[in-house]
Amino acid sequence: MLGSDAHRSVRAVPLFELTGVEKRYGELRALKDVDLSVEPGRIGLHGPNGAAKSPLLKALLGLVQHDHGTVKVFDKDVTREPFGVRALVGYMPEGDSVLPELTALQFTTLAAELCGLPRAEAIARSHQVLHYVGLGEARYRRLGSFSTGMRQRARCSTSLRAASTLASARRCSRTSSTSPSAPGRACCSRPTSSRTSRRPAIRSS
Fold first, then answer.
1. Which of 4, 66, 165, 196 could form a disulfide with 88 if both were Cys (CB 3.0 to 4.6 A apart)?
2. In the prediction, which pLDDT does 71 show?
3. In the sheet where 201-204 sits, what is the strand order?
């Protein structure tokens, strides 16, 4: 868990920086000489299909290896410190990636434990975020019984688990039940607490 000193240190550097970044898929150059520095805050990444939003997000998360340039998240190089970056980032992918045999609480707790939280803290944190996304009463139900919107909220809870400082959501859509205007608006924002207040989030639509 980030302490106050670490939190101040994180806030002192840009949210992320890309310098001369290029990413190719065969002959297709998805990212070309990208130079970008973004300060902490709640932001969105918008663009038409084929605008390379996904390659950019995946490069920031270290999920794909960029071909040239430097990518840093909170001043950590994603190539040299991939696990350090992922410890600070909560990511909600676009696909319906849930384990249907697990309950929402088990699913969120597993995600928190995989990110390094002790089990007791992972369980406590999971109760908190599941209430926040509107699944408090359903947290003991298996994910296989959930509606599409409820599964989206369960996936969202895994991006808010633990001590993640940056939350990244793929296609938190305008019609989704987890969109910011809906009651369970946690997809791209954070629970307010002493540990998570004023932390940034990034959203891709």
1. 165
2. 96
3. 42-45, 201-204, 166-170, 89-92
Output the six-digit token pair for 169. Answer: 């959501």
Q: In this structure, which amino acid lies at residue 192?
A: T
**Phi-psi region at 150: left, alpha or beta (left = phi > 0; alpha = psi -120 to 50):** alpha
DSSP state of 173: -
With 0-12 CB in 10 A as exposed, 13-18 as middle and 19+ as buried, what is 178? Answer: buried
Judge whether 14 and 39 are in contact, CB under 8 Å.
yes
pLDDT in tens, 53-87: 989 988 998 889 999 999 999 899 999 998 888 77
Contact 32, 15 (CB under 8 A): no
The two structure tokens encoding residue 88: 């600070």
Residue with tokens 């809906």: 182
User: Buried b vs exposed e over 105-128: b needs ≥16 C-beta within 10 Å?
Assistant: bbbbbbbbbebebeeebbbebbeb
